[in-house]
Amino acid sequence: MSSPAILKIEDVTKAYAEHVALDRVSLEIPRGSIYGLLGPNGAGKTSLIRIINQITAPDSGSVWFNGEPLAPRHVEKIGYLPEERGLYKKMKVGEQALYFARLKGMSEKKAKKILVEWFERMEIQHWWDSKVEDLSKGMAQKVQFIITVLHDPELLIFDEPFSGFDPINANVVRDEILRLRDLGSTIIFSTHRMESVEELCDHIALINKSKTLLEGNLEEIRSNYRTGVFELAFTGKLPSSLPEGIELVAEKEGLATFKLDQPDSPNQLLNVLLPHAQISGFREVIPSVNDIFIESVQNA
Amino acid sequence: MNKIGLIIRREFLTRVRKKTFLIMTIIGPLLMGALFVAPILIAQQTSETSVIQVLDETGLFYQSLQSSDDIQYEFIEPLQSDDPDERLEYLDKRKTELNSEEIYALLYIPCGYHCDLNYIEKSIQIFTENTVSLGVKSKLQRTLEKELERLKLTRAGVNLEEIESAKTSVTISTIALTGDEEVEQSSELSTVVGLLAAFLIYLFIFLYGAQVMRGVIEEKSGKVVEVIVSSVRPFQLLMGKIVGVALVGLAQFTLWVILTTAIVSLASAFFGSNLDPEALSTAQNAAETSEALRFFNLLQSINFPLIVGSFLFYFLGGYLMYGALFAAIGSAVDSEADTQQFMLPVTVPLILAIIVGQTIIEQPDSALAFWFSIIPLTSPVVMMIRVVMGVAPWELALSMICLIGGFMGTVWLASRVYRVGILMHGKKVSYGELWKWIKYKG
Q1: What is the pLDDT of residues A8-63, one digit of tens each?
Q2: CA B187, B191, B194: angle at the middle one, nearest 5?
Q3: A188 Cβ under 8 Å from any chain B Cβ
Q4: Min Cα separation B223/chain A (Å)
Q5: Chain A: nearest CA to B442, how far in angstroms?
Q6: Taking Cα atoms as reference points, which of B406, B237, B437, B428 lies closest to residue B340?
Q7: Over 90: is that where the pLDDT of B359 sits?
Q8: Which of B201, B203, B246 is nearest to B385 (CA)?
């Protein structure tokens, strides 16, 4: 029953009157992964997420959840924190959380039990009977997060997850998300701030102008985009000439950057350098997702 | 409980728990009750006896000004003098005594030079420390007018008994031919009932339609809506909200009816027991009682099950239709301030309906009345008036079918706008834009 991909998007196209939001986008989101849906504003990320959440339907193409065509009953297995988020200000916190849980198909009894656990974990149990308008922003954010995850969804989607969260809450939420991943949930992060989720994601898709630029395992993508650039910290003097295949790109105050034609054998460079200089640091410069994005946009 | 049920429950409970609902629920019946009770209270008020001193220089009114429960007359001996100045001086002295005694007012009937009746009728004055109540004044006027008339007729040599016997009062009863039965109706009464019902529908549509709109704007501007539509379909949210608010309206209406009835019956029980049974048996009251009996018979001639049924149908149908339109407006804007441009085309038919409704009372079977009571945008108000005044069953059926079709159409149209509008932020929306939304698929 369980296919390796929790979510499979095939050739999805969505057009609005003036523009095409998604142009034959295909993605595969592996179960248990933290998946980064990355791209600038207006690339089509939110349109895609709304299709996954069945808020809108694609014009063509198909979406598969757990190997089945996406259907209304699947909303109970998905948790969604939209970029545009808020709560009913005049409603009491506990009552409101209960309402959202029940809209996700939970029974009142079960929802209440789980909510009490979550409220205790997030240390907001004393605010159960307060109105949302009386909460601090940080606490409201915690409530919002709980509402997103309390029905124990298989797939969690966070649109611009850390925007609007203060640093402390962002950390709390980050740790909770990682914990949920460890418990078996699959996470999708959608953001235009690529650096904010880079270290968390194991899979990414880069979307630009309604098209997928590239998609897959982040490590694999990174190794494909290796540039063979290495950074060296040293004291002493560099050799005046370098063998073929090694190029000195820059040198400044004990820091040098080299470009190797064969990035898999950095020892070749070290062997040349060792007789000349004391080496205190040596590392490969790995391209950031941002760099990869810019390069793939230029290549496209 | 299914999801629409959950939404209906939330919409209903959050509104019913608000203080404004409680206040409206209490104030409504109090106002209605006051409408019924105030006349009784006023009637009670005047039964407190007011003492009126009468300075009658003519000596003509001693017989006719008879003390009663509410007014007690005290006649003051007039000054026997032919000098008007002396008499005025005497009057001034009486006036100064007015504030020292517990006298309500001083009625001054001057004689002038010859106690000419035409002079008297223009010259009567009443002096008081405070103000003379309208009731007392009109009673005095009636009594004095009657007596002066009688005096004039007698002086002209007219036989008063003949005049009395010639007095006539014509009443025309309207008999509605419904089938084989002949039922007495009152067109005045049905006009009032019809207008009241139509106005209530108009009021409720505006009141609760606006609540739907505000609810939609609250969800959109509070950015709750996208969280919700990831769990339920926009159409479910829309219908849940409209139905939830409708239930609030019905609950409020039911509470009003119950509380008003309670207040009125309590009040009439309380004040009713204070009424003097002997007063009821006087000749004048007997006439009033028979008039009241006739009124109650007429009330019974009104087909209340039909009217209440039609009221509920047209209230719900009209509200569902306008509620959906109001919801669509709410979804298209970012704040209540932006609703103006879209409100006009929605409110105009309703206002037109209430205007036309008032004019068709004269001609309930005109072509204007017919079309306005068939077109769904105006039929809830206009047909309600015609139902009370009597309308052909096929017209009623056609109007109802059109209204059902109308609200299904508007709900469909509104839901097309709504599902796009709620997710659209920071965009000034035009009618062209709305049309595009309606055409979007999925």
Answers
A1: 999 999 988 778 889 999 999 999 999 999 988 888 999 999 999 998 889 999 99
A2: 130
A3: no
A4: 5
A5: 5
A6: B428
A7: no
A8: B201
Shared domain for A85 and A99, answered yes or no, is: yes
Contact B364, B380 (CB under 8 A): no
Burial class (CB in 10 A: 0-12, 13-18, 19+), B80: exposed
Q: In terms of CA atoms, which chain B residue is nearest residue A17? A: B436
pTM for the predicted model, two decimal places? 0.74
Interchain proximity B440–A104, CB inside 8 Å: no
| Domains in chain B: ranges and CATH | 49-155 (3.40.190.10), 187-268+280-439 (no CATH)
CA of B270, closest CA in chain A: separation in Å? 42
Tens of pLDDT, residues B386-431 = 888 778 889 999 999 999 999 899 999 999 999 888 888 777 788 8
Same domain, A162 and A268: no
A289 assigned to some structural domain = no
Question: To probe the interface with B, which of A103, A107, A135 has the most B CB atoms within 10 Å?
Answer: A103
The CA distance from A216 to A156, in Å, is: 19
**A110 interaction partners in chain B (CB closer than 8 Å):** none
- pLDDT (tens digit per residue) in A160-191: 888 777 888 888 888 999 999 999 999 999 98
Quick check: is A291 in a domain?
Answer: no
ipTM: 0.82
CA B427 to chain centre: 43
Nearest-CA residue of chain A relative to B423?
Answer: A84
B224, B237, B417: best to mutate for the A interface, most A CBs within 10 A: B224
CA B29 remoteness from chain centre: 13
Name the residue among A17, A54, A99 with its Cβ closest to that of B436.
A17
Q: Nearest Cβ partner of B224 from A17, A78, A86?
A: A86
Q: Tell me if A299 is assigned to some domain.
A: no
How far apart (Å, rounded) are the C-alpha atoms in residues B61 and B142? Answer: 13
A59, A80, A87 member nearest B230 (Cβ): A80
Least confident range from A140-149, B31-40, B107-116: namely B31-40
Contacts of A86 in chain B (CB under 8 A): 222-224, 227
pLDDT, tens only, A232-250: 999 988 888 888 888 888 8
Please report where in the chains the tokens 């879209």 appear, as a residue.
B342
Domain count, chain A: 2
My answer on whether A36 and A154 are in the same domain is yes
Among A14, A27, A56, which Cα is nearest to A155's?
A: A27
Contacts of residue A280, Cβ cutoff 8 Å, sequence gap at least 6: A233, A234, A235
Alpha-carbon dihedral angle through residues A192, A193, A195, A201, given to the nearest 10 degrees: -50
Is A45 inside any structural domain?
A: yes
CA A234/CA A257 separation, integer angstroms: 11
Is B442 in contact with A56 (Cβ distance < 8 A)?
A: yes
Chain B positions with Cβ closer than 8 Å to A? 1, 3, 6-7, 10, 14, 218-219, 222-224, 226-234, 423, 425, 436, 440-442
pLDDT bracket for residue B280 (50, 70, 90): very low
Domain residues for the domain of A234 are 228-284
Which distant-in-sequence residues (6+ apart) come within 8 Å of B424 by Cβ?
Answer: B332
Give the count of Cβ contacts less than 8 A between chain A and B: 69
Are A177 and A145 contacting, i.e. CB atoms less than 8 angstroms apart? no
* Least CB–CB distance from B222: residue in A72, A81, A88: A88
CA A55 to each of CA A37, A155, B232: distance values in angstroms, whole numbers, following the listed order: 18, 16, 9
Q: Where are the beta strands (DSSP E) in B47-180?
A: 50-56, 71-75, 105-109, 125-128, 174-178
Q: Are residues A162 and A217 in the same domain?
A: yes
Report the C-alpha gap between A164 and B385 in whole angstroms.
Answer: 55
